[in-house]
User: Fold these one by one.
Assistant:
Number 1:
Amino acid sequence: MTGHRPRRWRSVLFAIVALAMTAGMVSACGGGSTDEPGGVDISSGSRHLNLVAYAVPKPGFDVVIPAFRKTPQGSDIGFSASYGASGDQSRKVARRVPADVVNFSVEPDITRLVKAGVVDKNWKDRQYNSTPFGSVVALVVRKGNPKNIHTWDDLLKPGVEVVTPNPGSSGSAKWNLLAPFAAKSNGGTDVEAGLAYIKELVREHITVQPKSGREATTAFEQGQGDVLISYENEAIMLDRANADAAPKNQIDYVIPAQTFKIENPVAVVNTTKDLTGANAFVDYLFTDEAQRIWAAEGFRPVVPAIVKETAGLFRPYEKLWTIKQLGAELGKGTAAKNDGKDLTGWKAVDDALFSKNGAITKIYKSGGQ
C-alpha cells in the first residue's frame, strides 16, 4: 500500500517541477498536437515517428516527447501524435493507419495488432512487460463531495449519476468496471456478485457513456454526472486544472479502499521505417528521467526506485487487484476450449467479460437487465 505523506509530497513535487522547468518544459492538456508546449514544432527532424495512443496520456507525452528530443538518441527525430479511444485507435492501426509506436489502455488492443501482423508476438519481452506507466481506478467527485461518495456501494445510492466511457470503444471503461467487479466478486471467486453490481450500476446509475476516458473527463467538467469513474491521473489533472476555478467547477477525488491496477502497454509497430528510432523512444520511456516525468503528470511509474522516490505524490489504498489475479481466477476451467490450457490474464478476462459474448458486454447490450 502506498503511504500518503503531505510534507514528502510537497518536497518531491517541488523537485520534479524544478527538473521540468530546468528542461524548459510545460505540460499541455487537450487534443492531439504535433507542437511542443510553448509553440515549438516537434514534427521537424531528419527522421520521423508516428505515435498512435489512447487519449488519456497526452499530457504526459506532451512533456516526454520534448525531453526525448533533448537526448542524443532523439535529437533528430520528429513526431506526429494521434490520440483517441483505445479500441478505436487499435482498429485504425490494424487497418494500416501509419504508426511506428503504439500505446493503448489495455493489452487486448495490442493483441489485435499481433493478430493483424503489425506487432511482433514477443512485444512483451521488453522490461516490465513493455508497460512504462500506469494508474489506479479513482472516483472523481464535485468539490466538497456533496453526494458523500467513498466506496463502490456509494455509487448505487438513489439518485447518484455516474459517468464512465463505453467499454465497446474505450479501454479505460474496462478498467473502470473491473475495479468494482473485482471488489464485489472477491477477485473473481464470486462472479455472480460482481455481475449483479455491474448490472445495477449500468441500469440505474451510468447516465453518460462517452467513447473515451478523455471525453468522459470533459463531460464531467461540463457538469454532467455526480461521479466520474476514471484513472487516478485524470483525477489529478482535473484537480490541478480546476484548483482556481469557481467552486462549482472544482473537484476532488477518492481512491476506494479496494481498487484496480491499471497497466498501459506500449509496443513498436513492425512496419516502421525507423526501427532503431522507435525502439530508442520506447526504451526512453523506462529511463529514470521519463519515469519522473510520468509521475509529475500523475501517472504511477514502474521502475522500483522511482516508485519509491515519488510515492508521496499518490494517495493510498488498502487492496489493489490486478489483471493477473483476476485472470487466473476467471480462467479456471477454460482448458477445454483453449488447447488444453486454462486462459490467463487479459485473455481470460476479455473472454469472460468483454468479448462479443462476454458477461459485461451482454449487460451493456441489455441496458443492465
Number 2:
Amino acid sequence: MAKAKHFFDIVVIGGGPCGLAAGLSLTKNGLSVAIIEKTSYTQKRVGEHLPPSALGIFHELGIPTALIEEKEHLHCPGVVSWWGNDDTPHELDYFFHPFEHGINLSRPKFDQAFANHARQTGVVIFENTKIQKSSRNAHSWQIDVTDGKNNNCLEALFILDASGKSASFSRAQGSRIMAFEPQVAITRHYTNCKTPISKQKNHIVIESCDIGWWYFAPLSANDCVCMLITDTDLIDLRKPTIDMNWHSRLKKTQAIAESIQPFKYIIDTSVCSARTQRLDCFHGEGWLAVGDAAMAFDPLSSHGITKGLRHGWMAGKAISNTMHGDRFAINHFCNDLEHIFTDYVNTRAGYYATEQRWPDSLFWRRRHQLNHQQH
C-alpha cells in the first residue's frame, strides 16, 4: 500500500482525555495537531468518576460542559468510605462544594463526545491506528502508521506521548518506568438494577479489606461498576478461581455487597494494573510524556481523568510556548510534574496510614513500610 504523507506541528500519541485536552490546548495556540488513537472510541475504559473540582477544570479549559451534562451521565452527591474503623463511615458530601455534585461518566459515550469536540476545533484524529515505526532527523519526526487499510507517514516537529501506562514511545526513546508496588484492579460492570430510581443512592462507596480495598460507583439508573484493588501476589487471577475469590470476598464486605445486590447481571470482568508508577525522565529532544505515560496514580486518589485533563492542557501550553521560542518551558513543566508527584506520594501515604486494622496483612504492611521509608 502506498503511503500518504501528512505534516503537523505536533503529533499526540494516545487519544484519551489527556491527549484530547492537549490537542485542544495546542490548536487553541494556533498549532496543527494529529492524534494517533489505537481504538475506535467504542471500547469500555477504566475510570468514570469526576469530583466537583473536575467540573471547574472543564470551565477553566473551555471544554463544553454539555459533554458531561448529557442524560447518559449520572450526578454523584458524594463519597461514603468505610476506612479505618468498622462502625462509622466517613462521608464526603459534595453539596458543600461550589458545583454541588460530581459526575459518574458513562464511557465510552464521554470519550466519543470529547473526541468529536476536538475534531470540531481542528484536531485530526487517526482512529484504530497503530505506529509501525518512528525516526527523527535534524528537524522533525517521521511516524509510519497504519489502520490496517491505509498507510500514512506523519511528519511532525514535536511528539507528545499520551499513550497511557505503557509509555510506549517514551520507553523507545530510552526512558524507564519506575514502579512502586504490584497493585492491580479487578473490575466488573453490572447491569439490570431492580431498585426503583426514586430509591437509588448515587454515592461512590469505598471499603477497605484485609487484602486491599473495594470501590463501587453507579453509572446510570441501570448500571454500575465495582472494583477490588489488591496486589498481584495476594489473589489468584486465573479463571475460574478469580470468580470464586471475588464472590467469597465480596460476601465479607459491609457496604459493597449491599450496593451491588440490586444488580442482576455481570457484563464483563477485566484485570489491569493499578500501581503507582512514573518515568525516570519525562522528556527528550523533540518529545514529552504526559498523563499516565509520565506518571500514573493509585485509583484511591480519584485523580485519573482530572489529572489527565489538567496535565494535558498544561503540556499543550508548554509545547506551544516552546514552539514560540521559550527554551525553558518544557523544563518548567517537568519540574511541575516532579512537585506534583512528590505531593501525591505524601498524600497517598497519609491515606493508607489511617487504616491500621490488619497489621499482619502483606498489602497493608507494604504501604505502611513505604510510608516509613519516605519519612
